[in-house]
Amino acid sequence: MKSIMKIGAKRRTYAEQKALWGFIYVLPWLLGFLLFFLIPLISSLRYSFSSIEANANGMNISFIGISNYVEALSVNTSFNRTLTTSIVNMVINVPLIVIFSLFLAVLLNQRFVGRAIARSIFFLPVILASGVIANLETSSLVQAINEQNAGGAVSGLGTSELTRIMVNSGVSDNIVAYLTSAVDRIYQIVSQSGVQILIFLAGIQSVSPQLYEASKIEGATGYEAFWKITLPMVSPLILVNVIYTVIDSFSRSEMTTLIRETGFTNFNFGLSSAMAWIYFLAIMVILLIITFFISKRIFYQE
């Protein structure tokens, strides 16, 4: 029996072995999805086309077609505004978070005293943003940090002064507005970059040191080594981090709060489910567009 298994293993091609191990790694998620998420997903889709009324015997579910979707898009006063705001915030935050994460990963990959402590500090927000601790992070805390930044070290230069310097340097007004908004969002950027930094750091450390040694012998500078070696080698991880950041941004948005309040505060589960499915489809379309454009510029090492 063992010999047959060995013969079968030997006959597998490299591509088949990769596919097998890929399936093994995905299997825990697949089992979790089938056991815990599939039925609620189908129920949510059913609720989105139904009117749900609670009574003494439970819930009375009656089919009403696309009325909940029409109400979400044309009657509800908050849905369209909140959805648009969530998408705009995602478009602004995702490039900032990914670029910041890559920049920090490159710095944290250098050899310096206290490197392990520095890595822990930048990953700490991920731990603090999980579980019960996340509930302790109130809007007053964020406001206090922003006020401190406004009156402290950040105001030493000030966004207005930063704007003036960049405008006088001939930088486009759109770029200036985008960069100054990044200063205002610095807390949000840092707090949402921990996982991305870890992924980029792992990718950078997997790059063969011989590539950097050969480039150094050829006279390449650190700047050239980054653009010609580091960035192409970690480009697949850029796509991974962009997708992760988009999903993470949407999961933290006001849209999820609106959906939760509509369902569990107003007890309108049909409308809440319709909002959730519209939101889900919007996220899927955005992810498909992002994957289509970024995947064309990814370098895969064989």
Automatic annotation (TrEMBL):
Transmembrane segments: 20-42, 87-109, 225-247, 267-294
PROSITE patterns, A to Z: ABC_TM1 (PS50928)
Domain ABC transmembrane type-1: 83-298
The keyword Cell membrane appears for this protein: yes
Membrane disposition: Multi-pass membrane protein
Annotated coiled-coil segments of the chain: none
UniProt entry tagged with the keyword rRNA-binding: no
Chief location bin: membrane
Record key words, sorted: Cell membrane, Membrane, Transmembrane, Transmembrane helix, Transport
Subcellular location: Cell membrane
Name of the featured protein: Lactose ABC transporter permease
Natural source organism: Paenibacillus cineris
